[in-house]
């Protein structure tokens, strides 16, 4: 089993994996699972009031989780995939982890360009929350 396939299997089983993006190495977890998200907070020593960024594989996937204003679409088409994060309201039907959003009604979305990150997200077909892998300094 190759490393990407192994990472996908772990993420689908609510485990945490480390993977590169174009800006950092991240700790990734299933963004739909409070159980998986809590593992990231514990590993990093991150306070649970600090929301996480949801990594998606496309604009279409992002639309499942965030209410993206039409005026944002040209910007996303130009800069995604890439290191651009947007913060928008959550879709009312979204089933994202409330632990990952820190209970807020907004969601941070990003579509990474790094081929490994992108392959993992596409393979899981899940939004992956992924803060940097370093310990939190709180």
Task: Describe, in plain words, how this protein is organized in 3D.
The chain has 138 residues and is α+β, with helices and mostly antiparallel strands. 31% of the residues lie in helices and 20% in strands. The chain has helices at 3-12, 34-44, 59-63, 73-79, 115-124, and strands at 17-20, 25-30, 53-55, 66-67, 85-90, 106-110, 128-129. The mean pLDDT is 95.
Give me some keywords for this one.
single chain; 138 residues; alpha+beta; seven-stranded mixed beta sheet; 7 strands
Summarize this structure briefly.
This protein is of the alpha+beta class and 138 residues long.
What fraction strand?
15-25%
Amino-to-carboxy terminus distance: 38 Å
Quickly count the helices.
Answer: 5
Q: Low-confidence parts lasting 5 or more residues at pLDDT below 50?
A: none
Query: Helix/strand-derived class?
Result: alpha+beta
Which shape, going by the Cα principal axes?
globular
Instruction: Report the C-alpha radius of gyration, rounded.
Output: 14 Å
The arrangement of helices and strands along the chain is: HEEHEHEHEEHE
Topology:
Layout: H1 3-12, E1 17-20, E2 25-30, H2 34-44, E3 53-55, H3 59-63, E4 66-67, H4 73-79, E5 85-90, E6 106-110, H5 115-124, E7 128-129
Parallel strand pairs: 3-6
Antiparallel strand pairs: 1-2, 2-7, 3-7, 4-5, 5-6
Helix pairs in contact: 1-5
């Amino acid at each position: 089993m190759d490393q990407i396939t192994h990472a996908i299997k772990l993420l689908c089983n609510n485990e945490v994996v480390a993977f590169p993006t174009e800006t950092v190495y991240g700790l990734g977890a299933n963004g739909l699972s409070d159980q998986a998200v809590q593992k990231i907070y514990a590993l990093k020593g991150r306070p649970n009031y600090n929301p996480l960024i949801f990594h998606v594989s496309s604009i279409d996937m992002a639309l499942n989780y965030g209410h993206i204003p039409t005026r944002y679409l040209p910007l996303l088409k130009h800069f995604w995939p890439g290191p651009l994060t947007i913060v928008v309201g959550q879709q009312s039907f979204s089933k994202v982890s409330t632990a990952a959003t820190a209970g807020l009604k907004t969601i941070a979305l990003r579509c990474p360009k790094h081929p490994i990150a992108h392959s993992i997200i596409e393979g899981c077909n899940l939004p992956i929350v992924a803060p940097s892998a370093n310990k939190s300094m709180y």
